[in-house]
Design goal:
two-stranded parallel sheet; alpha/beta; 371 residues; Rossmann fold
């Protein structure tokens, strides 16, 4: 009799504990309805004149570049580990707010000259910088300017936070601060928002790297292979088919991440003309860190902190990052909207102007709504 009663009490407690754990974890992983819409390419911002494909070089050289040169200031900020992060600021006499621009994998500041120009003409200051291992910022390995190398994405987050505290805050005039981040920069931005949810008034994530396209290979297998390479002291070696930058390489525009030949060629010329813009491939350590970072984004306790308005642009033909993970993020954060972009590749901002009119219209509508 006693044994049966004792067993019943234990069973009751076990069931109660299981139910408690279930509801606790269910609340942590609870998904919200997906807020996803398809962009209307007929939509445009009448106050913004997008540079035309056929005149792109002329307009960049004769219109955008002189304006950018008139308000740019450059500098380096020293990190706690004694590295240097290169940054550029563009401050207007009167402004609505400030944009922190974070580039993607193998990117650099000047790749975003066109969008920086548009932000400025619409009344927003811009702060942009070369992420560590890119552009003019310090490299963690010295044997090749083509390699992108990092051991932990926390380093990227710390660098971004330093730029925020030392450059943005003192110059923001207590006006809104927004994020614009692309691809790998979107991964860094997501982790930055989770770590410091009070920093920003809103974020625009362009094709964010919340999951990597692994070509159907299960993530644990890729991670095991990468860790094996690192175990054989290959962490600083090029991963998989990544390689040194090849100057003036002829590339089929159809095989790139953009639809605009003029915009692709403009960025390609910048890369060919400056060895510091020739980052081209990841090391095994970077791949390992990226796989970990794209998992860290989805820690339930961190996701619960994300309540600022976030706009994600998702490209239909993006073969570099995972759309499913973007949607997973959107469903598990407080105020995230996805805009689906039919026909476009990963570098949405380097598409033809017929697509960009609607793209920028969505961007500036979002910013105006969250001032």
């Amino acid at each position: 009799m006693f044994q049966n009663t004792h067993f019943s009490i234990i069973l009751y407690k076990a069931v109660f504990l299981s139910i408690t754990i279930f509801f606790t974890f269910s609340s942590c992983f609870a998904s919200k309805p997906l807020n996803k819409v398809t962009i209307d390419y007929e939509k445009n911002n009448k106050n913004l004149n997008i540079f035309r494909e056929e005149l792109f070089y002329i307009q960049m050289q004769n219109v955008a570049q002189p304006f950018l040169d008139s308000c740019i200031k450059t500098g380096f900020i020293k990190t706690p580990d004694q590295n240097q992060i290169y940054y550029e600021t563009f401050f207007l006499p009167e402004t609505k707010g400030t944009i922190l621009l974070i580039h993607g994998f193998t990117g650099f500041t000047k790749k975003f000259d066109e969008i920086t120009y548009y932000f400025l003409t619409q009344g927003y200051n811009v702060v942009r910088y070369d992420q560590r291992g890119h552009g003019f910022s310090s490299r963690e390995i010295k044997d090749s300017l083509s390699k992108v190398h990092i051991d932990n994405f926390e380093t990227y987050i710390d660098d971004a936070s330093l730029i925020y505290k030392e450059i943005l805050v003192p110059n923001s005039e207590n006006k809104p601060i927004f994020l614009f981040a692309h691809s790998m920069g979107g991964c860094v931005a997501s982790l930055l928002i989770e770590s410091y949810p009070e920093y920003f008034d809103g974020a625009i994530l362009n094709a964010p790297m919340m999951g990597i396209n692994l070509l159907g290979i299960p993530k644990p297998i890729v991670k095991a292979f990468v860790n094996t390479a690192i175990g054989f002291n290959k962490g600083a070696s090029f991963a998989f088919d990544h390689q040194e930058f090849i100057p003036n390489e002829k590339v089929d525009i159809k095989k790139t991440s953009t639809k605009s030949k003029a915009r692709y060629q403009y960025v390609s010329d910048l890369r060919n003309d400056n060895i510091y813009y020739q980052t081209n491939g990841a090391t095994f350590s970077w791949v390992d860190a990226a796989l970990q970072a794209t998992s860290d984004i989805f820690k339930p306790k961190q996701l619960k902190k994300v309540n600022i308005p976030i706009l994600i642009f998702q490209a239909e033909k993006d073969n570099l990052v995972s759309p499913k993970e973007q949607e997973r993020f959107a469903k598990r954060t407080g105020n995230t909207k996805i805009i689906f972009m039919p026909h476009l590749e990963h570098d949405v901002f380097n598409s033809k102007d017929v697509f960009l009119e609607a793209y920028y219209s969505e961007i500036f509508s979002f910013l105006e709504e969250n001032l």
